[in-house]
Amino acid sequence: DEQLYQGARSIVIGEIQAITYNEFLPALLGATALTPYRGYNASVNVGVTNEFSTAAYRFGHSAVGNDVEFLDNHGNDVAPDLSFAEVFFNPPVVEQTGIDPILKYLASDNMQEIDTQIVDPLRDFLFGAPGDGGMDLASLNIQRGRDNGLASYNDTRVALGLKPAQTFADITSDPTVQAQLQSVYGTVDQVDLWVGGLAEDHVRGGSMGQTFTAIIADQFQRLRDGDRFFYLNQFHGAELTALQNTTLADIIRRDSGTTNVQDNVFFFKTTISGRVTTGDPRAVLGLRGVTVELFDATGALVGTTLTGIDGSYHFEQTGLGSFTVKYLSPTGQAQTRAVTLTKGQLVGGIDFSESSKPQPKPQPQPPARPAPCTPSASDWNAPISAGLPGLNGPKK
Question: pLDDT value at position 355?
Answer without folding.
Answer: 62
